[in-house]
Amino acid sequence: MTAFEAFDRLVDDRLDTWVEELAQYCRFASEKGDIEALRGAADWTIERLGALGADVALVELPGRPDVAPLVVGEIGSGPRTLNLVQHYDVQPAVPFDLWTTPPYEPDIRDGRLFARGATDNKGELLPRLWALEAWLETIGDLPCRVRFLVEGEEESGSEHLDALLDTRPELRRADAALIEGGSITLEGTPYVAAGGRGIIVLELAVRTIAYDAHSSLAVVLPNAAVRLVHALATMWSTDGSPAVAGLDAGIRPPTPGQRAVVETVPLEVLEDIVGEFRPRQLIGGLEGRRAIEALSLSPTLNVQGLWSGYTGPGAKTITPAEAHARLDIRIVPDQDPAEILAALRAHLDREGFTDVEVREIESERAWWTPPDHPVVETALGVSEAVTGRRGFRSVSMPGTVPMYQVCAAHRVPATTLGAARDDCRAHAPDENIRLDDLATATRIAARFYDALAALPEVPPVP
Amino acid sequence: MTAFEAFDRLVDDRLDTWVEELAQYCRFASEKGDIEALRGAADWTIERLGALGADVALVELPGRPDVAPLVVGEIGSGPRTLNLVQHYDVQPAVPFDLWTTPPYEPDIRDGRLFARGATDNKGELLPRLWALEAWLETIGDLPCRVRFLVEGEEESGSEHLDALLDTRPELRRADAALIEGGSITLEGTPYVAAGGRGIIVLELAVRTIAYDAHSSLAVVLPNAAVRLVHALATMWSTDGSPAVAGLDAGIRPPTPGQRAVVETVPLEVLEDIVGEFRPRQLIGGLEGRRAIEALSLSPTLNVQGLWSGYTGPGAKTITPAEAHARLDIRIVPDQDPAEILAALRAHLDREGFTDVEVREIESERAWWTPPDHPVVETALGVSEAVTGRRGFRSVSMPGTVPMYQVCAAHRVPATTLGAARDDCRAHAPDENIRLDDLATATRIAARFYDALAALPEVPPVP
Questions:
Q1: Do A450 and A421 lie in a common domain?
Q2: Which of A251, A335, A338, B402 has the fewest CB within 10 Å, making it most exposed?
Q3: Burial category of B287 from C-beta neighbours within 10 Å (exposed 0-12, middle 13-18, buried 19 and up)
């Protein structure tokens, strides 16, 4: 690929500048609810896309100033259009005390940039933009039309993305989509994902008494925390695996092609997870190939937060009146959030917990592209070419990205590219990205634009 | 009791002034950890006791400025000495949003004063002091020696009370002790308690992975919240009753006298609790007499707080690495905190939860005076005389007060007096005291001082 010689030199030369740019972007604490920081990050995105030379537009919901706007930036021309599905919001950075350096004061050490958003998604978005900048400067006209769709509610379930896109439905028309995610293993093997899970976030809540009582009455008054504990205990086996009947409702059986792809995912993926998180054992005694299959193909049932009574320092001798658990359930094609919520309700009722409320907070469906689709093949091919290592693909990343909202209407094929490492700590304290990987991701993105334009055919998802 | 005519008039005349004084006292947010507010409340106590004419001393632990000091005030003379066991600290006021008016901005409405500490213990301490003030002004010399022992760590388990008293061991020498607690039912029936439970506060903690993971990995990584839920679920039956073997270790069987007293406690006590807290049903299907017995004689096992993962607003898609529960266990004579903690550890080990840590936070033993002791008889008699209603006594209040530390060394008999109502919301939002009951408590205290001095004999606890 000699066409990229000048390009690759520019990437090396400009990396320091770009890293500084990413650090700037990561200074916005663009968490849900922080309107000012979200607006700051959106404005920064608009300005950066404008500086690139893109046509930039802000898509807002009429009469809803509380909804974080969608930033749209379009650049280039050609017979193919590629949607880049990105976001400028970030996960909450709490608990702050577990960060080595403050989450919104980006710090460079050990060849990495540490900050909330360093990977997810600011550090994945920018290399895809830098690739265009470097292309324009070293190669010339872009080979295809690239459309950035940068939303501000991705980390809270892309609640209004559908409504925002409905105001500009032409934005959903594209030949392919590049979504966030995709990674490089600790050993350097790139992998791409042909899909992502959907998600349901919900809260369980129970009240046992009118208000918190003095705990001396605990011998007679029912404790909300204990009540919720008993309800939750029925929802998982003691080995940690979900025990709610109907959690698998609506699953479309994997095709032989998908099964075959799962067989090719190296065990290294699992080893990296185990090495990083060091669990005593995996859920349900899973190991090896069965764990890889579960990561690709199974729904999850996860407690993300649990709270009741007095949780501050010291002690407070009360019997709590209320208890809460927030759960997320990752779903796969073609599961319907309403059906899964009904199964959970039925489970609780069957177990005698009619008093435990189920409150839906958000949900989105899963979207999978066949893993042998040319767009996925291309993504894997360019990732291998740049890293110089044989990679692999997965049927679905374990996480959730708003592919369904962007791609389902026109059955647009979607893929990821290799970018962050498996120890990037997305969503956790000390989130980071390796500076080297920023250069790699920039190189991979440019090759992908090039190869997509050259594909003889890009069929829609069947 | 014509001797109290002038006294009773003065109580009526001065009540407004005294209520204002209580409001002042309640402005100190003297919660554990708020050194400034604790010191403010201690200074206020010293000044008030000084204004009464008491000899005041501050007892501190050498080299431990972090330990809230004990305020001692002694006044009067005579052959009998009475210890008043009180405190100037308060329970945490959180959650603030459940208070109708701010907890440290006392508000008078509907004939009550609302504030944290209104009952527990500022509104119980002051009437005992006002009784002395009114006595001195309307009757003359006090009939006995009264010693206020006002500590600043009662709500967090009186951790240093023993050590503070050890520096002035003569403070434990007394003929009797008046402790906090005791009450008037909603219908107006006074009751006194001959003892209080002990308490153990502890934390359960478990860690399943090195740090919080992205919840997309929940299909393989063990969730700390789920792990703790399973451990906790083994500790209570689904009807809410404790299921830890050995929780009853060391219980001294109640005497026939104690059993007889429990029989005399009116069901109204339970009805008031049920009316106030409106549980669907009581723990373990308890009702009526059996519930009254449990309130008097049984240990408890209570979750006061439960927390894991992300508990803020919105959502955070993590699998928590750690989970915590804070528990309190109320114990009865002669239970040993160490033995109970060992039983809990053994229970968790037996159930397969060796990975769940048990951390003791504080503990104190129970102290019961025989319910037919003359000091208890006297307390009940004067409460009945002032309220004009037949009262009752209990073997033990359901809660904990530091009687063991003050009384056990010299086997001092202890009792409560009728004071706050059963809907005073001690430890809860909207804590309050009725202004009428402040006058009643002042009158009862004066009669108790008088009657104690007149008792022919005050034997130590056998």
A1: yes
A2: A338
A3: middle
